[in-house]
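[step 3/7] fold_predict: job queued, chain A
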Amino acid sequence: MRNLKVLFRSILFAAVASSSNAQIAQRNTLTEQLGYPPDAKLLIVHADDLGFTHSVNAASIKALESGAVNSASIMVPCPWFPEIADYARSHPDFDFGLHLTLTSERVYYRWGPVAPADRVPSLLDENGYFRHDWTVTTKIDPREADVELRAQIDRAYSLGVRPTHLDSHQYRLDSTGKELFEVALRLAHEYRLPFFVTRDWFKDDPYLEKTLGPDDVVIDHTITIDPAAPPEKWADFYKNAMRNMQPGVTELVIHLGYDDAELRAATRERDSWGAAWRQREFDFFTNPAFGQLLRDQHIQLITWRQIANRSQHN
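[step 4/7] structure written:
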């Protein structure tokens, strides 16, 4: 009988402990770590590609100052990086991350490495620029990627940028394979910055989830417009995305700019992410109607800075 009582108590204790652990895990979502109820809809409205051109910088700054766009990331290798670095240095409260860059996708408007070229040859084309694209036969040395990405982060710090997070231009560090993702994650750990990863990508790239540790930040969802969306359906896409947004932390990735001569020249070989595209995004997100849409859908804006500092809510 005594043994049966001991066994019963052990089973009861295990059940209680299991239930308690499940409750702790349930409470320990990123949303709740940020101090919000589990059904809250939290949104980062994030502008990519700052540093790309003056037009992109100017439009992004205007949108950030409007308050509806509340986060952005900077491309260190690009020609207009010094301008946005100066702005970031003088506006330390803004949510600026680094858009880690290993490709130069435009045909006539190019950029190359921050690190010495002879230390990163696998990243470069025959003219010394980053490659336009990577194919299945492209061999990128992860050690050289590490050298270049460190150089980009260090250059940003040297010019006074204090990044709140890291992310990847064209998602190359997330979607190319485990080795490059490990490079990105290692740098995020060393510089003590969150790296943008979302659960939405786990199905297509299962190595992401397997590589992440228990303390790594993972947001719940990401939204970005399909390049095939016709211009007349642009506003409908974003309105529907906000109306259908799920609880949790979502990053809305957008690309801003003015449809001016500079940006048209830099992006003239194709329309995708070009001058007209970026002007449409600027017009939509700086319109007061977007802020009203967020209020109507009870969507709360948050930043990567809050995510990085989330321990204060626990």
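[step 5/7] annotate
Confidence is low (pLDDT under 50) at residues 1-27.
The first helix runs from residue 2 to 27.
exit 0
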